[in-house]
Each structure stands twice: as structure tokens, then as C-alpha cells.
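re: that chain from earlier
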Amino acid sequence: MPRNTFFLFLILVLIIGALGIGVYLYFFTNTFSGITSPGGITNTFRNFSPFGNGVSSEAPRGGKDAVTGTLGQPQNAGQPAVKLLKLVQNPVAGFIPTTLGSTTMVRYLEKQTGRSFDIDMSIPAARTKITNTTIPRVYQALFGQNGSSVLLRYLDSSNLIQTYSATIPRATSTTLMQSGVELKGSFLAAGLGDISLSPSADKIFTLANFGNSMVGTVSNLDGTKKSQIFDSPFTEWLSSWTNDKTILLATKPSYVAAGHAYALDVKSGSFQKIYGGGNGLTAILSPDGKNLLVSEITDNSPSLKIYNIANRSLVDTGLKTIADKCLWAANTVIYCAVPETIPSADGGYPDAWYQGVVSFKDGIWKIDSATLSTDLVLNISQTARESIDAVNLAASKGGDYLFLINKSDSSLWSLQLR
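^ sequence. v structure.
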């Protein structure tokens, strides 16, 4: 073979070989890590955190507004639906499940910035910024009126509790929300110790020290149209507005003191004791006001029980958790975050848990108060492969989702129930 022909043949072989290697690498070994769009939001399914498909979470990529968490690979046909999602990794001060048409939404407020965002649960890897007003170090946000109003609570420079009542826009099915609007509102009285929203979320009940007494007042969300309905020389109270007629008042729990729960009539102001229990009592009332879910400390461990008010009967559920980690989703349906184990606590329960001395690894359980059946819905800590100490449980309107905050880092999670 002539020398020139040989060299041409050799070059052709090398080119074909290089092309073959390139095709192999491109089609068989390439992995996509996501494309970053303008503004730093990463357009990738790995920007989200589902569990149940064997994919672990990872740190988010993209700019400061990128949705946190990890989304795993698409599931194969026949695999169960992804149930547990880490919606927001940054600390959340509060949230509310809402609806837009037939779509489940969740609105939340960041602790660090005081800004609020919306997540559409049909496309949970995307979020919409709703407000751009910066209020740093908000430790509690209470949303009302389907997310169109919010109470922001924080400590000022004098360590005095401030509560700012604001209105925020809400999208409709025909109108797109303008992103990044300014919060507008007014301050409530300084130093309010406890606030609870009415079931319709258009009124508030507040507790505040006045002289040597604790005074309870009902008002609109902005503090107008006040009406005092409660006055007590005892000052250590916690409130929860159960239904249109009743506010539950319970003594603050401690392992060194027996607890008591009372029903406060919203209209008349009448005050009736409904339960006197053991030490460390925490309690939540069913929506119809007929049953009280209580936890009491036995052998330095919380025991969860159901108390029927009319019959004065007390039944142990067999679960060991604190009632504050539970939700009455309906008159006979309860969801609870139940620890895998109860670690020993030198400070005693529930004090050590409230103070952050100990934390839990939870599973979500469902309780039927009529039949007293208990069923494990999902061990969320094992599924997520991280410790989830669940608090602030809330269900979506249709009951399809359960939302919660991880007490350990204030991240926001969702659990698809059906």
C-alpha cells in the first residue's frame, strides 16, 4: 500500500474511533445535573426532596430563591406514589394550607426574612414569592382568611414581643398574583403572650398580663372591636380556639405540676373546668367539643389518652407522644407524630422537649377516636433518613395532604395521604 494511502487510512480509522467513543459517552454515560436559568433558579428535578423511592436529599442548587430539597428519578409504573416531600429547607415561621380552584396550595413565611411564598402542590418544585417586605427574625407567623392575612411575631431590641397584623394578596383562579408586593398593616398591643385564631380565621383571642391578672380578649385580626371575655389571677395559660363557641384554655405544662383544662364560652365568657389531669398535661379539643386528647407524664414518659367529656371516661391510646404533636383532622380522626423511642431526659418531660434539650424521631400515626384503632401512616424519619421532630400538623381542605414543621430545623414538609 502506498505511504500516502496508508496514512489516509490510518487517519480515517482514528476519526471513526473518536466518533464512536463520543457517541458512546454521550448516549450511554452522560448524566444531567440541571440547567440554571436566569436568576439562579435551577431547572432540574433534583431541586426537590421526595422520599420512598430510595433517593436521598442533597443541598439545593441555584440562587437564593431556588426551591430547596431533592427530587429523585421518575418512578416506574406500578411503584407507589411519592408520599413525603421536604418542601422548604430554610426555617419557616408558619404556614397555611389553602386552595386555588381544585388545586391544593400551601403558603408559608420565612423566619429569616419575614417574606411569604406560595407552593402549588401539583408542581411543588416551584414557588412564587408573594411579599418582599423584610422583617428579620420572625419566630411565629399565624395566617388567617385562607392566607390573605398574617400575624407576624418577633422580639424587638428590648426583648418585648411585637405582633404585626398585615394583609397580603391572594390569587384567584382567574387572576395571577403579582409577585413581591409590600406588606401593609398595623401593630397590635406589645407584649401579647399568647394568640389563637378562630376556626374561620377572621378573629383572634389574645392573652396579656394586666396588673396581677391575665386578661383574655377577642378582636378582629387588626386588633379592632375588642371584647374582654376572660380574667384570671393565674397567669400561666395556653389557648386554642376550637370551634365557634369554645376556646380551650390549659395550664402551661410542666413535669413538676398537675395540669388542668377549661372550656371558655366565646359569647358569654363562662369558664368551666373539663379535665384535671396529671403532671405535664397538654390537651387539644375535638372540633365538636366532645373529646379531649391529652398527654400526661407517667414514669417520665408521655402517655396519649382520649377523654370523653360527657361520659368522663379516659382511654389510653397506647401511643407515647405529646398532644401538641397531634391534630384533630375531623371529629373522630386524629393524626399524631409519635417518637420511635422516648429518650431519657434529666429535665423531665415535657419540659425537656419544649426547651430543646431532647428531640424525637417521629412516625405519623392515625387514630380513630370512635373505634380507638391506631395505624402507622408512615415512619417519616426512617423514610427521610433524617430526624423529623414534627410539630404544627395541618391538613389540606380535602384531606389529601398533611403538612408539618420539623422542630429541629423549622423546615416545612408535606405527606400525601391519598
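Confidence is low (pLDDT under 50) at residues 3-8, 21-79.
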